[in-house]
Amino acid sequence: MPKKGIIAVISGFSGAGKGTVVNELVRKYGYAISVSATTRQPREGEEEGKNYFFKTKEEFEQMIKDGKFIEYAKYVDNYYGTPKDYVYSQIENGRDVLLEIEMQGAMQVKKDFPDVSLVFITPPHVAELERRLFKRGTETEEVIKKRIARAAEECSYMKEYDYIIVNDGLEECVEQMHCLLQSLHFTKNNQQQLIGNISRDFASYSN
Ligand code: 5GP
Hints:
This protein has 207 residues and is α/β, with parallel strands linked by helices. The chain has helices spanning 18-29, 57-65, 84-92, 103-112, 126-136, 141-154, 170-183, 192-206; strands spanning 7-12, 32-33, 36-38, 52-54, 69-75, 78-83, 97-100, 117-122, 163-166.
């Protein structure tokens, strides 16, 4: 049986660059990324099943009723949720899975799965956040303003995270994330299988 993979939650303000960091972690190091369901409209170039599973509000609410989500949240007028099946099958196969989710969802995961580590990615300052949101050019000014207002509220969640990483340069941020994620394999919670094996070894050795 392969050693189980880890699950790590990654959040950050909209525009913190976490999507780009996560994509690099997938490309460079082969992490699995959970594909979320959302009721938001696809952005140009986004693909069904790759970026998101795009759902109607009714479909999403039915999935909530059917207990299909690890967590879900409403973010700026839309639902977002992490489907259970994919994440569980990946960690059973030894893959490390990244959940890129916003903070309400992250707090839900922390409550339901206390062993999961929460990582927060932040830009070095707010002016940089605003610059990145405008540069991305995918949202209207009104939506950008909403996202910055939301980020100001979200700031209070930062202290609930286990690790905070500053994204002040893609490559450095990706390397720091990879080091951190690899180190999570060695926490006692992620070594339960090994602890069990060694305890059994000792038991049979002394018999
Ligand atoms: P966007 O609309 O920019 O793709 O995503 C908006 C926010 O929703 C981002 O902060 C993103 O991390 C978050 N998000 C994406 N998928 C999920 C999910 O499955 N659950 C939760 N709680 N948040 C998500």
